[in-house]
Design brief:
Number of helices: 7
Shape: globular
CATH superfamily: TonB-dependent receptor, beta-barrel domain
CATH architecture: Beta Barrel
Number of domains: 1
Protein name: TonB-dependent receptor
Subcellular location: Cell outer membrane
Structural class: mainly beta
Strand content: over 45%
Number of strands: 42
Main location: membrane
Keywords: Cell outer membrane, Ion transport, Iron, Iron transport, Membrane, Receptor, Signal, TonB box, Transmembrane, Transmembrane beta strand, Transport
GO cellular component, one term: cell outer membrane
Length: 748
């Protein structure tokens, strides 16, 4: 471990410019299989792209090799390489994505009527919820994070951006890999991949994975370590290439995940000079532990999911390509949740979820033309999602003291909700090559949405919504201007518009007070603009991308709260403005050494939000207003500064060995944790330092590699989410502490 002091010094010294605003990285970095060399840099917006109609933008394009080298294996850790992206994971069902402050408006896990405005795609298939990314980021070809409205090519629920993940295809040359990781607190991860020909025209690929993470939060009551997980997954593929002009790729996967989520009591707060939470807890005989966990029961969740997809590509006469993508996915989630105290209040509760989605997309791409080329297509998408929520309240003398309501004793409160959605859309996008240096790209998409649903609640504020039906037309459009000032310097201007799907308020709270019309939520519309420059100099030893961006969200979809009935419900609020600067700098001063700095300086504010839910510090004081005005305040989960600084050095160590040292510092400034901007839930800013070092060499026909890694090297205590309880207490999902581990692998 001699290298640790020097790496810590290097990372901390480079990270001392904490106020520097950086942005998203547009590079793909590839690892050398033999001698160290300069990384290959591909600037998004070059003439040759994976998608010929993707316009230049401040997109973060990360090669799969780079994800592996950086130790990024889950969606939750992707923001460490993609500043401006925020991933908040409470559990597999309640996972929220935002890009530059725009994304999930704050809907709860019970209210199923509202999708995110950041779309997640896996191998060209839209995943309606982030938890459907079941196999994490394993065996990935590349991952792309796109900011701003993406509705022309990606669809109706991408007004805030999109995350596009492509996995590696089967190969007609045999290859395989085995990796085993061990770490503190029972961390183990096993990965195996085999790929190769099954016949002259058929190739297969299979991935097997098993991972375990031990808990890192001690339950004082039981002595158990909570926060751990166990995941098992299998993913198989077949690639059939019977002729040069046709290929068919079939993908199937199944995953089983068991988690023990835990919320830490981060703090309690005074109201009118009194700590209402501690007073009530002690009156009921509870002994809460601030900064820890003390509960007589524990949370457990199980997620079983899988899917199949088929992608066919025909190379037609004249250079045209026709692509058909057919997919089906199943998502089954069963939680068993409990209260957070060491007295029985409720247990074995939560919201069981079944989600089924299916889709069919047809897309035609023209050949690269001298003056014009284009893509056009159609999409049909369906989703059927239902929940059964159940709360089992204890029957004792302590529960009425805590709730102030004896009527809940021994009750089973049940809620049934269902959403059935159908989407049909047509799209086209084309690029006019005005000159060799100047391109103009324009695109439009029209989407018809039909959403139906219902909600029933019994044993507490009984409610039956009856059948609800909503129909909407959702337009999207894009206009992009791109100009090459020099062979290695490109400028661009992108203008975009999109509408996110409307929602159904599958909750009793709104209708009891506001009438049945409040059950229908209008679409959320977004206008966006981005002005950027991309350049490379000194034989690609220096690269820099800078972008100014601006977005305006109208009819912001978020949630409110009914204090009397203790029920969340959806609303259309006012508008949000997101603006700022994004930048990425890559420096490769000498052979084997790379320095990368990227980040975002963000100003995301509520322009109009006068019907916001009031924060706990207001509602608990008494005589609180029905709503609060947050106009002009910072949007929740939108830190003003995020940046990542990575340094890596590769060299030939002798005797056929390759070695590397790497350090990554990721920083994010403070942000509100909940949509009501409660000062109780303000998440402090924090920085994370991750270190790694390794060796590799040839063995037989393959290459072995071994690395040691230290995540959260400074053992920073930080929270991924914070939320306020009924009496001013604050609970949070704490990030993992310092973790030391090793990874052994063999590629053949």
């Amino acid at each position: 471990m001699k290298y640790l002091p020097s790496l810590i010094y290097l990372a901390v010294a480079l990270a001392s410019t904490q106020g520097f605003a950086a942005t998203t990285d547009t590079e793909e970095k590839t690892a050398s299989d033999t001698a160290p060399r300069l990384k290959t840099v591909r600037v998004e917006g070059q003439r040759q792209q994976q998608d010929p109609q993707r316009t230049p933008s401040a997109a973060t394009v990360i090669a799969g090799e780079e994800l592996q080298r950086q130790g990024i294996q889950s969606l939750e850790d992707l923001p460490q390489l993609a500043p401006g992206l925020d991933v908040a994971v409470v559990d597999p069902f309640d996972t929220r994505l935002t890009i530059r402050g725009i994304g999930d408006g704050g809907g709860t896990e019970i209210n199923i009527g509202m999708p995110s405005s950041v779309g997640l795609f896996l191998d060209n298939v839209y995943l309606s919820r982030p938890g459907m990314l079941s196999n994490d980021l394993l065996d990935i070809e590349n991952a792309t994070v796109l900011a701003g409205p993406q509705g022309t090519l990606y669809g109706y629920s991408t007004t805030g951006g999109a995350i596009d993940i492509q996995t590696r295809k089967p190969t007609f040359e045999p290859e395989g890999s085995i990796r085993q990781s061990f770490g503190q607190r029972g961390h183990t991860q096993t990965q195996a991949m085999f790929s190769g020909p099954l016949s002259e025209t058929l190739a297969g690929r299979i991935n097997l994975s098993h991972s375990e993470r031990g808990g890192y939060v001690k339950n004082r009551y039981s002595g158990h370590d909570l926060g751990g997980s166990i995941k098992d997954g299998v993913r198989g593929q077949l690639l059939w290439v019977p002729a040069d002009d046709f290929s068919l790729r079939l993908i199937a996967d199944w995953n089983d995940a068991r988690n023990a989520p835990v919320a830490v009591l981060e703090s309690t707060n005074l109201t009118n000079g009194r700590d209402l939470f501690l007073e009530r807890a002690r009156a009921a005989g509870a002994n809460p532990v601030i900064g820890g966990v003390n509960t007589d029961d524990e949370n457990h969740t199980r997620l079983q999911q899988g899917g199949v997809s088929a992608e066919a590509n025909w190379a037609l006469a004249g250079g045209y390509n026709l692509r058909s993508t057919t997919a089906f996915r199943y998502f089954g989630y069963k939680p068993s949740t409990t209260d957070t105290l060491d007295i029985p209040l409720y247990s074995n509760s939560g919201a069981d979820v079944r989600d089924r989605i299916w889709s069919q997309e047809i897309r035609l791409d023209s050949p690269r033309g001298e003056h014009f080329d284009y893509a056009l297509g159609a999409l049909y998408f369906g989703e059927n999602l239902d929940t059964y929520a159940h709360d089992y309240y204890a029957d004792n003398d302590q529960a009425p003291i805590w709730y102030g309501n004896r009527n809940l004793n021994g009750k089973l409160v049940q809620r049934w909700g269902e959403i059935d959605e159908r989407i049909f859309s047509l799209f086209t996008q084309g690029t006019w090559h005005v000159t060799d240096k100047f391109d103009i790209t324009a695109g439009v998409r029209g989407t018809h949405q039909r959403k139906a649903g219902s909600f029933v609640r019994v044993n507490r504020n009984d409610f039956d919504s009856g059948d609800l039906v909503q129909r909407k037309f959702l337009p999207s459009g894009l206009l992009n201007f791109s100009y090459w000032f020099q062979p290695e310097l490109q400028g661009y201007l992108t203008l975009g518009y999109g509408e996110k799907a409307g929602g159904l308020n599958i909750s009793s709270g709104a209708a009891n007070r506001a009438g049945m019309d409040s059950l229908f939520i209008l679409p959320e519309s977004t206008r966006g603009a981005e002005l950027g420059l991309k350049g490379k100099w000194f034989e690609q030893r220096l690269s820099a991308d800078v972008a100014l961006f601006w977005s305006r969200v109208k009819d912001f979809q978020t949630n409110a709260y009914d204090e009397e009935f203790q029920t969340s419900y959806l609303i259309n609020a006012g508008s949000i403005r997101s603006r700022g600067i994004a930048a990425s700098i890559g420096l490769y001063p000498v052979e084997g050494l790379s320095l990368n700095l990227d980040g975002t300086l963000l100003d995301a504010s509520y322009m109009e939000f006068d019907n916001a839910r009031c924060p706990a510090e207001v509602t608990l004081r008494g005589n609180a207003p029905a709503t609060c005005d947050l106009s002009g305040e910072q949007v929740f989960r939108s830190p003003k500064v995020t940046y990542n600084l990575t340094s890596r050095y590769d060299w030939r160590a002798g005797d056929g060995l390759d070695a590397f040292l790497q350090a990554r510092w990721s920083y994010r400034s403070w942000a509100y944790g909940t949509v009501d901007n409660s000062r109780y839930t303000r998440i402090p800013g924090y920085g994370l330092l991750n270190l790694s070092a390794g060796l590799g060499g040839q063995y037989g026909d393959g290459r072995w590699n071994a690395s040691v890694w230290l995540n959260n090297a400074l053992d920073k205590t930080y929270y991924r989410t914070l939320s306020a309880g009924s009496y001013g207490e604050v609970y949070g999902n704490r990030g993992e502490p310092r973790t030391l581990g090793v990874t052994l692998g063999y590629d053949f």
